[in-house]
Write a structure and sequence with these properties.
This protein is α+β, with helices and mostly antiparallel strands. The chain folds into 6 domains: about 60 residues, Orthogonal Bundle (Helix Hairpins), CATH 1.10.287; about 230 residues, D-amino Acid Aminotransferase, Chain A, domain 1 (2-Layer Sandwich); about 80 residues, Nucleic acid-binding proteins (OB fold (Dihydrolipoamide Acetyltransferase, E2P)), CATH 2.40.50; about 70 residues, DNA polymerase, domain 1, CATH 1.10.150.20; about 80 residues, DNA polymerase, domain 1 (Orthogonal Bundle); about 70 residues, 3-Layer(aba) Sandwich (Rossmann fold). The strands form 5 sheets. The chain has a 5-stranded mixed beta sheet. The chain binds adenosine monophosphate (AMP) and zinc ion.
Length: about 675
Amino acid sequence: MDIKQKIEELRKALQEHNYNYYVLDSATISDFEFDMKLKELQELEAKYPEFYDATSPTLRVGGMVTKNFETLVHEHRMYSLDNSYSKEDLEDWEKRIQKILGDVTVEFTCELKYDGASISLTYEDGKLVRGLTRGDGFQGDDVTNNIKTIKTVPLQLRGDYPSKFDIRGEIVLPFEAFEKMNLERIENGEEPYMNPRNTAAGSLKLQDSALVAERPLECLLYSVVGTNLGLSSQYQVLEKTRSWGFKVPTVAKLCKTTDEVMEFVDYWDIHRHELPYETDGVVVKVNSIQQQEELGYTSKAPRWAMAYKFKAEQVSTVLEEITYQVGRTGAITPVANLTPILLAGTTVKRASLHNADQIEKFDIRVGDTVFVEKGGEIIPKIVGVDLTKRSENSLPTQYIDHCPECHAPLVRTEGDAKHYCPNEYGCPPQITGRIQHFISRKAMDIEGLGGETVELLFKEGLIENYADLYTLTKEQLLPLERMAEKSAENLINGVAASVNIPFERVLFALGIRFVGETVAKKLAKAYKNIEALMVASVEELITVDEIGQRIAESVVGFFGNEKNLEILKRLRAYGVQFELSADKLLNQTELFKGKTFVVSGVFEKVSRDELKKMIEDNGGKVGSSISSKTSFLVAGDKMGPSKRTKAESTGVPIISEEDFLEML
Ligand code: AMP
Ligand code: ZN
């Protein structure tokens, strides 16, 4: 079989599987088989770039970097929706419509109002050509590269689609994925994201599409615009677009009467909490497209549609006590302890108060009857105080000024909303938190040791920092509660094995504030060993890709601390990895430091990926498009003519594969 045919077959098969899996929710092959096919296609595409296709399923994995999102005009304006907050509002709207349309039957399609980031996708000849954010409704940002990584966005349509149209919908992040992301952030010592909607919107604007690909975003669609589409009703739009391969939620209902509309509203006001993603209302639309056209638009919204907003569920209960939690980095979080109450299907006992400012803003006091809401945020929040119920002798809340765990005076730096306990080495939750982070899966991944055991070991005086883990003996462990011969052995073996964990993960494990997994990788790559990193100044650190002032200061602060230096010295003596391993260092130089290369075309001696790796291994950067900042264009065979023209016009030197290898 010829290569082209093979590539096309693989693409087709993968598209089919994607559709079955993500849109129909029923897989037809195993994940393993899918991955094998995808890998085969990736390899073929890398080898034969002449068969490039902008809709290939391999684009799902991302890797395209967008530095500046281009602003483009929407061919059809993206309108907003009018809102109603009561059934009376909704009934009034229906009467107005009936009056304009006269004595005809009006039917309605009811849909849920998905709370995500609006998107408009353009398809031409069945292929996705563009994805724009809503922006101001007239123009939005071109986020096509990022959109292509979202599995529920079809890159190639199926069935009898019109030759050109725009389709609108929302990009949402399901609750489960959102919570998982937040757990990871908390583990990394980062602030959790506020709500799924903002996180979804933020994801669309990430520069590296490979990061977008890692986020389980979904695209839910609800409307089509264009000319000569051959569609006569909103309900038909939903059914048709579903058959073209789009993920169109099936909860929509065609309602013949206003009563049926209200039934839909009532039902989903309760049952929406069972959905995997966030919704904030119902959108009622006149079903007939002809009637829609007759009704037209106001300056802001269609007259033929109306959003009914669900009330964020709110209850009132008594604030019994304010307690304060100390995190691994010493950050203090005030927590409201409430008289338990049922809210949105779960019993709520606690609510986050965020920080001192928040408490002051609402003048929240112990003993107050407070209003608690579960809105966009997952953790319930206090939205106000019922002042009519406040007792006469209530006193304003005095925010703590000493750590509740170790009694050290708290500090608060300019511009930071949180208070911190500065007693890093004497504050129990900080000590155990740091050790728990050190042993966690993504850090040193120490088997046979868990968070509770860390607390126990600390309480028994056996460990005070993570270096102490390496000196634990069986004799020390055996007397402990629930510690048998076998589990003690496992623990010791697990600790011993961790000396093989590579440097970049060790760096993450150290628990330097703001140094998460990615930052640790960047630092390890840039400095190669801990000695070099230890002496780096803030000015030097911020020249490293993605390292800002805040991170740089934190790193310098960490290595400026005597206690840390001593712990590091001990870890080194136990054999923990403090430099990049030999194979990672192999052939690495600083030769191309500060230089950016764009690679294009097909090469003879090395593959394109190998070439890119050679650039990065030698300290250079690989860019995706030519600009005045590009140092060289490495031109292979069959390079696109536009790249050559661009390079020539911006004066970027064009070099051949041989030239490049010679430079090395
Ligand atoms: P708002 O942002 O409150 O003005 O609400 C209008 C937005 O709701 C629209 O721009 C859409 O992005 C969004 N929306 C969510 N679900 C739907 C739906 N089923 N039909 C129409 N718009 C929707
Ligand atoms: Zn403390």
